[in-house]
């Protein structure tokens, strides 16, 4: 199943999680879930950036040939 979240949506979710964590008012169980979600979102961002980088490189290579 492909994730349909855009990069900007993912970054916005990460920022919201960081704000919640920074308040220091999260229950330990909720904090654990937020950290897990942040980890998933970071991986998703890295994957999207890697794919975009590969696509740009491919286009540039095609332009050079």
Description:
This protein is 83% helix and 0% strand. The chain contains 2 helices and no strands. It has helices at 7-23, 28-64. It starts with 6 loop residues before the first helix and ends with a helix. The mean pLDDT is 92.
Features of this protein?
2 helices; single chain
Distance between the termini: 35 Å
- The low-pLDDT segments are none
Helix and strand run: HH
- Helical amount: over 70%
- Rg estimate, integer Å: 16 Å
Structural class from helices and strands?
A: mainly alpha
Broad shape: rod-shaped
What would the average pLDDT be, to the nearest integer?
92
Oligomer: single chain
If helices are DSSP runs of H or I spanning 4 or more residues, what is the number of helices? 2
How many runs of DSSP E, i.e. beta strands?
A: 0
Largest sheet: none
Which percent band covers the strand fraction? under 5%
């Amino acid at each position: 199943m492909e994730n349909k979240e855009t990069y900007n949506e993912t970054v916005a979710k990460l920022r919201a999680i960081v704000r919640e964590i920074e308040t220091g008012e999260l229950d330990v169980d909720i904090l654990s879930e937020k950290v897990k979600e942040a980890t998933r979102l970071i991986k998703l961002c890295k994957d999207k950036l890697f794919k975009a980088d590969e696509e740009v490189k491919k286009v540039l290579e095609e332009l050079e040939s």
